[in-house]
From TrEMBL:
<dbReference type="GO" id="GO:0005737">
    <property type="term" value="C:cytoplasm"/>
</dbReference>
<keyword id="KW-0645">Protease</keyword>
<feature type="domain" description="ERAP1-like C-terminal">
    <location>
        <begin position="611"/>
        <end position="936"/>
    </location>
</feature>
<dbReference type="GO" id="GO:0043171">
    <property type="term" value="P:peptide catabolic process"/>
</dbReference>
<dbReference type="GO" id="GO:0070006">
    <property type="term" value="F:metalloaminopeptidase activity"/>
</dbReference>
<dbReference type="InterPro" id="IPR045357">
    <property type="entry name" value="Aminopeptidase_N-like_N"/>
</dbReference>
<dbReference type="Pfam" id="PF01433">
    <property type="entry name" value="Peptidase_M1"/>
</dbReference>
<feature type="domain" description="Peptidase M1 membrane alanine aminopeptidase">
    <location>
        <begin position="307"/>
        <end position="535"/>
    </location>
</feature>
<feature type="domain" description="Aminopeptidase N-like N-terminal">
    <location>
        <begin position="79"/>
        <end position="271"/>
    </location>
</feature>
<protein>
    <recommendedName>
        <fullName>Aminopeptidase</fullName>
        <ecNumber>3.4.11.-</ecNumber>
    </recommendedName>
</protein>
<dbReference type="InterPro" id="IPR001930">
    <property type="entry name" value="Peptidase_M1"/>
</dbReference>
<keyword id="KW-0472">Membrane</keyword>
<feature type="transmembrane region" description="Helical">
    <location>
        <begin position="12"/>
        <end position="33"/>
    </location>
</feature>
<dbReference type="GO" id="GO:0008270">
    <property type="term" value="F:zinc ion binding"/>
</dbReference>
<keyword id="KW-1003">Cell membrane</keyword>
<dbReference type="Pfam" id="PF11838">
    <property type="entry name" value="ERAP1_C"/>
</dbReference>
<feature type="compositionally biased region" description="Low complexity">
    <location>
        <begin position="52"/>
        <end position="62"/>
    </location>
</feature>
Amino acid sequence: MGKVFYISKNVALGLLLMAICAVITIIALSVAYDKERAKNRDDSGHGQTDNTSTPTIPTTPSTEKEPWDRYRLPDSLLPLSYNVTLWPRLEPNEDGLYIFTGHSYVVFKCVKATDLVIIHCNKLNLTSFDGHLAVLTAEHHSAPAIERSWLVPKTHYLVLQLRNALTEGSTYVLHTVFQGELADDLEGFYRSEYTENGVTKIAATSQMQATYARKAFPCFDEPAMKAVFNVTIIHSHGTIALSNGREIDTVNTISGLETKFEPTARMSTYLLAFIVCDFTYIQSTQRGVLIRIWARRKAIDDGQGDFALNVTGPILEFYERYYNAAYPLAKSDQIALPDFNAGAMENWGLVTYRETALLYDPIISSTRNKERIVYVIAHELAHMWFGNLVTVRWWNDLWLNEGFASYVEYLGADYVQPTWNVKDQILLYDIHGVFGVDALASSHPLSCAEEEVSTPAQISEMFSTISYSKGAAVLRMLSEFLSEPVFAKGLSSYLNTFAFGNTVYTDLWDHLQQAVDQTPGLDIPHTVHEIMNRWTLQMGFPVVTIDTRTGSITQKHFLLDPDSVVERPSQFKYIWFVPIKWMKSGIDQQQFWLLQKTDTNDNMRVSGNDWVLANTNVSGYFRVNYDPENWDRLLALLNSNHQALSVMNRAQIIDDAFNLARAKIINTTLALKTTKYLSKEMGYIPWDSALRNLNYYILMFDRTEVYGALKSYLKKQIQPLYEHFKVLTENWTKVPAAHGDQYNQINAISMGCKMGVEGCRELTKNWFKQWMGNPAHNPIHPNLKSTVYCYAIAFGGHEEWDFAWTMYKNATVASEASRLREAMACTQTPWLLNRYLEYSLNPSKIRKQDATATILYIARNIVGMPLAWDFVRARWRYIFEQYGRGSFSFAGLINGITRRFSTEFELEELKKFKADNEDIGFGSATLAMEQAIEKTTANIKWVSENKAQVLQWLTDESA
Ligand SMILES: *[C@@H]1O[C@H](CO)[C@@H](O)[C@H](O)[C@H]1NC(C)=O
Ligand SMILES: *[C@@H]1O[C@H](CO)[C@@H](O)[C@H](O)[C@H]1NC(C)=O
Ligand SMILES: *[C@@H]1O[C@H](CO)[C@@H](O)[C@H](O)[C@H]1NC(C)=O
Ligand SMILES: *[C@@H]1O[C@H](CO)[C@@H](O)[C@H](O)[C@H]1NC(C)=O
Ligand SMILES: [Zn+2]
């Protein structure tokens, strides 16, 4: 599944910052990534089911669990193929219920004699045949009779107890007829409602990963239970039906149209997809593969699918070459669904996307929107081989699947947009982000044992930042020390060996090892397996300290909070095999392997003006610290000739320094010193890294006397960047040509306006005024809209606000509406903010789904924060009852409001709020409340320890 990258720049920034706070747990970042997965976690799996076809048979309590009480299927039966027919109704029935009906035949083989048939089935009403919920036949002989059959809602099973055992080696056919609800729950076969031209429309679509295929039809719903699926969909005239295979036949029947699809390749159930809607498409073919982009007719007519179509062919071609394996299917459909909640899903041959992850509108979409489309497509298409063709046996290895796609998506994206330098961005989007979470004592290893993951809720938890981003980072490191050609060779051999089958992660290590063994001259100190175990079986990562005075090198488990206690033991004692790429005075040196806690490398002993920089381009997953002299030499280098280092290394020096300071390994002033050279820095990646780190300082100090000095210092630092873009864009009339510049222009304007750089206020106000003068023509470039709207509203009064409100109400494009909704929270006028808070709980003004996000935006604003806090406290019961239950964004609300909390008084208020509402409760925000208290405590401590020296340093620097 794809990760949700850009909720919004600022929210993401906030989240990354929160991760820097020592006490935040995994949850913070899982918001940024698989947002919707995390949200669904609350109600995924084993809740109440409405299987009432037959009463469940109470089992006598015993210590030995019955096979149907276990979450994993027994290993006695293996599916070979299915015939599945589904008929979704896009109109409600007489009871007002949207349903689908269907029937299925599954041919399976008995590989171990058993008198039980256990197959997944969830929330389906099954038709009875002679009192039984299914019909069992055998292909060439007779099948045992069914003694009794029942459903087990807790483990999602249909169970048949047979009179006699099935014969080992024989095949049987199980037939079921069923009816399910086409609910709007985004799980299994579900209904998506959206409006087009004011008309509400319904589409039937699906999301099977991880455990929802069983909600569409009875099936052996585990990734290793691969089979061939012959799908038929019944649908009405005027609609189209799609599934994984190519449609081979559509015939008229009394029920409507019946579309049959070619048999699928041998595949896992979680990759199935079924769609009925009235969309249209554009197409092309690439080496015999049919490529289609599907979306609402209007979107296709407006050309919004063109960009996706343009990049899909080349991306597929890139992977064919990279994997050295042809695209495994005859067609590649990609479809944009309105109100689709996961970012995207890699269903084999029919990838589903949120509209914003696939559709590009040259007039409305920003460069960031465009970039996201390329990343998400590249991510999902990478799975067509890695994940779909070869699939991990069980969900405990999900990190390999998602980490891999999250790494190679940068390669695929780079191939189609070679001028964007997208490969560098893995630092911002994955590595720095996950460093924050993985540096907590509460982190967890990438890999876990198969037995630890069995319930749907446990499976859901695998979709975490650690799996996606740390997975990507360690695979990138592996590829770096093996070299890309060796990595690709091993990969290709792995994919070709296990095509249409399943693996465990060590199979990949074995094939990479073979590639290593076949490469003369490639020398690694241990096997791939041994090296990687250190990174996948123990959590966290090391900080490597290089003392250039002696050449000594040491490693230590890096923890953001030096007082935290690691309770999880590691068989490797938190020692890693660390591949250190490094340079001396600008010249790349031979890679050094740190294999124990301490070692020495005489080569790293330097003096005079020579400097050492380790972990070049952050090719390894670790942080670096140096002796004070070398830090000074690196700082001097940044100040005199920062371009001697790559943008990634400049960003890394800043990010490492700030985090080492948080962990009390170096002084806070040393971290601040890494920002001194920024007045000369024009690169996006270093700036973004710096702003992300400095934002914590802004939050902690923007209500204190430190802020005056901080503001003048940052104004001094950002001013040259602002001027640079003013010139580059010919007084803001052009769009910078380079991709990174387009992003950094946004940083320049938003920080420029925030820090009071001359001209910024007028710039944003005038642009907005022009638009207000002619609402039909918006002169603001899509890249800059969010920023310009925000500052124009912040600097403006109620005219600007009311204009934004009108444009918000009239917006026809979702992304434009959400930019405006966010920007209206930027006003500094208390009564406007209070009125907006009131609007947020009025569903006729702000859609219910957007309520908590809107309050959060208001809380981000320094003036809005106390207002939002009062508002939420005063209406807790109402908000909780109307909006809170089970909603993940609710935890985000508590997190967001309390982000600035850093005084004893705020801590008291927070505790009182908790005590006062004990009776109402906090639902899904219970953990967030605890975290908020811990975080506030940590903030108070940090401020008390750092305030004086930060103020002193800033005062000296801004003088
Ligand atoms: C599905 O189609 C394949 C290929 O035509 C066939 O071999 C298989 O038996 C079919 N499955 C079922 C359940 O009929
Ligand atoms: C599956 O469908 C095909 C084509 O409709 C049919 O020939 C075959 O008999 C079906 N398989 C079973 C097991 O019913
Ligand atoms: C399944 O059966 C129950 C009990 O009869 C009923 O309440 C429910 O609506 C049915 N579901 C569907 C989708 O028909
Ligand atoms: C798609 O490619 C065509 C042909 O190269 C080009 O003219 C068009 O501008 C591209 N469209 C988009 C949206 O990139
Ligand atoms: Zn994925």
